[in-house]
Amino acid sequence: MENNNKIDFKDLWKQQTISPSNIEDLLSKLKHFKKASLRKIIVVNILLIATSIFIVFIWYTYQPAFISTKIGIIMTILAMLVYLLVYNKLALFYKSIDSNQSNSEYIKKLVAIKTKQQFLQSLVLSMYFILLGSGLSLYMYEYTSRMTILWAIIAYGLTLSWVGFNWFYLRPKAIKKEQDKVNDLIAKFEIVNNQLKEDL
């Protein structure tokens, strides 16, 4: 009697069919993710290229005397260019997603994006912050050497605190947000994929 009253959740799940509205909603989320990601790449490119141009303008206008300042400028610009070089490769992955692919192809593309993001967020971002922090420190030396020790410490303290705040607070939040978006899409496509296999 007890066995007859048990509900087989697996059988119930198999009997479900995927409504077209659910699939359309998922594809709409994927399309939004693709557009938002490509838009973000464009914004980051504009900001970092504009910053690099501004730094070169400062170099040309103020003609720093110390070699450390010039090395600092080069390292700062190099940090931005290396980051953009790797970051822009993500655009190819986003553009390769189209509405004519199968669920398994969507999953493969999203996993590839996730892998590329992890590489960018770990090794490349670490290199970016090391180069940027070192570049700023070298750049500032010429100008802080003209200050009193107290003001030089304050200037370095504020600059390195800002870099540290970005590294320890803003970076992890941004990484988690990006990972959650991709993981959520992968999970939803896997559910649909598994459901379709079970329905067959």
* CA-atom Rg in angstroms: 25 Å
How many structural domains does the protein architecture include?
A: 1
- What series of H and E elements makes up the topology? HHHHHH
Mean of all residue-level pLDDT scores: 85
Uncertain runs with pLDDT below 50, 5 residues or more? 1-16
How many helices? 6
User: Beta-sheet strand percentage?
Assistant: under 5%
The dominant shape is elongated
How many β-strand runs? Answer: 0
Structural class: mainly alpha
Explain the overall architecture.
The chain is mainly α and 200 residues long. The chain has one domain. Helix content is 86%, strand content 0%. The chain contains six helices and no strands. Helix 2 runs antiparallel to helix 6, helix 3 packs antiparallel against helix 5 and helix 5 runs antiparallel to helix 6. The longest helix has 51 residues. It is elongated and about 75 Å long. It starts with 8 loop residues before the first helix and ends with a helix.
Summarize the SSE layout with pairings:
Blueprint: H1 9-15, H2 20-62, H3 67-87, H4 89-95, H5 103-144, H6 149-199
Structure, briefly:
This protein is mostly helical and 200 residues long. It is built from six helices and no strands.
List its traits.
200 residues, mainly alpha, 6 helices, transmembrane, membrane, transmembrane helix
